[in-house]
Design goal:
Number of domains: 1
Helix content: 40-55%
Low-confidence stretches: 11-19
Mean pLDDT: 88
Shape: globular
Largest sheet: 8 strands, mixed
Number of helices: 8
């Protein structure tokens, strides 16, 4: 789980003696149950508002398949707000992938596994295409799992094209938060009572058979950046969204 990756990084930088073994023990042994508890606690003490959710409801009523796409660093509030919705996520076969599956499954997320190598990536892509075709939704970090940050990879567009799914650009923000100084600028909401957070849905996007995936990548990148800026402005300015 990304949260545990960054808590591990924090311990390495500021923890007890900078001992790698301590941070890895926390991450891989304690993390699978501690991470979900942290997410649930922070979410419970916050006020979280969803913006433009009515568009998702309309799409779901039309029986169309949905792929939620977000920046890797803007996913914390997406975890509890989309729990138990039959959403599939692709996870690697690494220890970090094991950690992700163990933690996120507690929120009802489902997984397909694939390695970062070409063969494993193709296998994982084919498997998630199959799951979407069976009627499940999916979720992807557009710039994950290792960056470069804020740059859309074409894989998710290819999957949307093949499954005729609707891409939902999605982001989140929080008024009081910690931004980690890493490639994805991961946002961690702080557990301050009545901290204000939002989940923001952008303009739904279709990828047709004759669409140029590079151009669609640029379009998706612009939309993700647009809604992320909007989300930050809303929480910074205490804007009340009704």
């Amino acid at each position: 789980m990304c949260l545990l990756n960054y808590l591990s990084l924090y311990y390495k930088q500021y923890g007890i003696g900078n001992l790698r073994c301590i941070s890895d023990y926390i991450k891989y042994k304690i993390g699978p149950w501690l991470g979900p508890l942290i997410i649930k606690f922070i979410y419970l003490v916050m006020r979280v508002k969803k913006i433009n959710e009515e568009e998702i409801i309309k799409i779901k009523k039309s029986k169309k398949k949905v792929i939620y796409v977000f920046w890797h660093g803007r996913q914390f509030l997406l975890v509890p707000t989309h729990r138990f919705r039959n959403i599939y996520i692709m996870a690697s076969l690494s220890r970090d992938g094991d950690l992700q599956v163990s933690g996120m499954s507690k929120f009802g997320y489902k997984f397909v596994r694939g390695s970062t190598g070409k063969k494993g990536a193709v296998q994982g892509t084919l498997e998630i295409v199959k799951k979407i075709s069976e009627g499940y939704d999916a979720a992807f970090a557009a710039d994950g799992p290792h960056g470069p940050g804020f740059s859309v990879k074409p894989g998710v567009l290819f999957i949307a094209q093949k499954t005729k799914s609707i891409i939902i650009p999605t982001t989140c923000s929080a008024k009081y938060r910690k931004i980690f100084k890493n490639w994805d600028r991961y946002l961690l909401p702080l557990p301050i009572p009545f901290n204000y957070g939002i989940v923001y849905y952008g303009k739904p996007m279709e990828v047709k058979e004759d669409d140029n995936l590079e151009l669609k990548s640029v379009e998706l990148e612009k939309e993700l950046n647009r809604i992320t800026i909007l989300a930050d402005n809303i929480v910074y300015n205490n804007t009340v969204v009704t």
